[in-house]
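One chain given next:
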Amino acid sequence: DLHSFPTRRSSDLQLVIAKIAKALPSNVVLQSLTLDSSTFGAPTSLSALGKTNNDALRLKTSLEESGIFQNVHLESISSATSGAEKGDYPVSISINVTLKPEVAKQ
């Protein structure tokens, strides 16, 4: 029940951000993640960029094994084919995750 969760302090959120950063495999950068008191224990989307399609699978596995998230589901992988979109990280990755409510307490 989301209403029973205590309000998250900024220090709790900083701790969670550090844990997420550690869980990112090489060649993957986090593009977006909404992180506030409403996202603890509730499904949310995470967007990342990778260098190859294989990076998407490595990210999913890393998030599952991190102990931070549950219900990790790969939603989409798309690759830029040319031009400025391609850049250093041409693969866009979208993953649905649920942040474990107890993660800030660990």
Observations:
- The first helix runs from residue 10 to 23.
- Helices lie at 10-23, 53-65.
